[in-house]
Structure formats: structure tokens, C-alpha cells
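As a warm-up, study this chain.
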Amino acid sequence: MKIQFIGGAGTVTGSKTLIESNGIRILIDCGQFQGIKALRELNWEPLPILPSSIDFVLLTHGHLDHCGWLPRLVAQGFAGKIYCTSPTKDIARLVMLDSAKIQEEEAALANEGHYSKHEPAEPLYTIEQAQKVLSHFRIVEVGDSIPLDAEINAEFSNAGHIIGACSITLNIENKTLVFSGDIGRDNDPLVFPPVRPKKADYVFLESTYGNRLHPKTDTMLELETYINNTILNNGTLIIPGFAVERAQSVMYLLWQLRKENRIPDVPYLLDTPMGISVLDIFRANSKWHKLSPEDCNAMCEMFTMISNYQETIDTIYENRPKVVIAASGMVTGGRVLSYLEYYVGLASTTVIIVGYQAEGTRGRKLLQGDKQIKIHGKYYEVNAKILEIKGLSAHGDQLDLLNWLSDLQNKPKRVFLVHGENEPADVLRLTIQERYKYECTVAQMWQTVEI
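Now compare it with the structure written out below.
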């Protein structure tokens, strides 16, 4: 059996792991690369095998870096089945269509402004191509054994992280392979803690925060302080929010603070059409999260929901203090760019970063203290306060990842670390070897291993 890492190795984006066994090819996740140009350009490169030769895609969850290359895969000939949970299908649909829409719009802007090196600039994929993925989805239930072949079956188990997210156990050639997907936190405010595997011969574990422990600071107090300080200065507070999960988690905390009268009565706005649609997925999948239907409705009533882009423009030019959650979370696209074009140059503005920022993204650059950021071909001075709340990440930290391994009843032959930049992955490798005495390897892009 061959395992090849064709994404999500040495980086936290573009997750793709290929398994080949007795003529069957299975792809775990099919993510889009984000961040630095060298990674983004990989989205345009062909896979090392023909997409038409892949039999199945098993999707851990619906984030762009795990599902966002599916339209390219289908456009290039994939005709197989894509297995995932029902919430993951709904989220992946939103994410892919939103990604296609943004890419079409950015290509049009680049052609209009003549700032692309390509004439004409083209989107990575179109809305029509994203829609063609949907007929390939097959829904699975957590805990069911899914037969992929006479001697291959898969089982999905809750991974926390976001609604619908799962780890995947693959029983193949009398071996048990466990793919963690993205592991959530044991104490997430909205989703349940991840289910820990009991048996694995080989583990493929994400390592996003392999070198970090989430701070034990009071996240609600941080939010309260930053909001009150900004409003006192008649400023606008902008939270670039991942439309899936983090936007809803931030909404929940703001709702709690407002109920306790700890933050002022100003407009609170959710400006992400996809994030608004995800709220409908929350309502339809109550078994996947901790919010009651009543609490979900009460939380939503606090916020002004903005879907129409003209409403975004009107909101931007409203000269009054406000709190805005707008996608995207890594500031790579979406409505948040329109807010930053206007507000990032104002000293009264506060921008709060609340999730992982991949290398090369605008979010990472803001956190690094860059004094200028480039948006739609133009440079903007950064005079806003750039702050970070580390306690809001949807990813488990080093301790969560170590705990996820703690219920294994056998010693795996090897643990492969994926979905992490090299430094955090290597720190986690050493820690796993020290704590569990497991053989542990950091996966490298394009590497093929035989097991």
C-alpha cells in the first residue's frame, strides 16, 4: 500500500493524502492551497495522478483548505463518490460556491484594473464547476461502517473543530489507518470534544498548533476590554471571521457579554453571507453542537445580518461606532477587505484576529506588524490597532493533540504529522516520541511511503 502526501504537508493548507491499495485509489480531503504565492500557485498544478483514476474522496470537513480543490478535481475527470457527513456536505457546498464567486469577481477586477500578470486573468474554477461537485456527494452517519471495496471500509467519528467535522478510520489490507482531520478543542464553547481513537496501526495527525498551548486568559474579558476601548474612541472594531464556526463562536460570546451588560448597545453586524447560511446549518443540525434552538435564535436577534453588498457599502460609510464580523478569517478575500480598505488606515479602528493565520496571508502580515497591506492591487497604510485573541482558535493546541492519542489501546507502527508548518510539526514529533515512545515522522510534500 502506498501513501502519498500531495497537500497539507509542511503547510496547513491544500490538504490531500492519497492511498493506493490493490488498484483502488482513495483521496483523504481535497483542499485548496492558501497563503504565500508559491503555495497558491500549486492550485494550478496537476495532481501527480489522473483525477479520473481516483475512486473515492473521503472528506473530513468543509473548510476551504480541505474541500476547496474539489471543483478542479471534478473538472479534470474525477467521477467517483465523495463521502462526508451531512453538515460537511452543506458547508462544503457553501464554501466552494463562495470561493468560486470570489475567484470570478477577483478575476474580473484584475482584468478591469489590469493588475494581473495574466491576460486575461481567469478564476481557479467557476460557480458552474463548483455546482458540478454536488452530485458526487454521499452522506455518511457517524459510527457507520462504509464499504468502499470488498476489503476496504471507512468509519467517521466526531473530531470537534467545526460542525460536521470528523476523523476517518480506514480498515484496509488488515491494517487500521486513522486520519485525524482537524482536531477541535476539548473545551470549545459550541461543538463537542473530539472522539479519541481506540486502535490504529498508522496515524495521520494534524499538527497546526503542535508547538503551542492556548493561553488560559479570559477570552470574554479580552473581548469586553477591546470593544469598550474602541467604542469609547468612537471607533469601529472589525473581526475577520471564518464564516464556518468562528463567526458563530464570536457571536455567542458577544451575545453572552451583551446579556450581562458588559459591552455597549451599538450595532453588532455579521457581514458574511456564507456565515449567515451556516447559521441555518446550525439550526438544522442541533445534535452536532451545544446551542439549544432557543439560544440560537436569541443570539441571532442581537445581530444585523448583512447579505447584500450594497448594505456592506452603506455600513462602511456609516460614521458611528460598531462591531463587525466579516469574512474571510485569514483576510484573504471576502467582505472584510472592503472594510479594511476604508478603516485600516484609521487609528480609531481595532482589528481582532481570532484564528490561525497561514504563512503569507494578510492576516499573518497584520499580526507581524506590517505597516502596509495590499488589497486589490493597491497598498493601504496600517494605522489601526491589530490585536489577537488566541483563545478563540478552532484547532486543538499541543495538549489537545496529545490527549487525542491517549486512548489508543495498541502502539501504532508510526505516526505521520500532517497539516502543520515544519517548526510546530517537529516540536510535536519530539513531544509525541518523548511521551508515548511512538515512532513519529513529519510528512513532506510529494513524499510517498509504503506500508
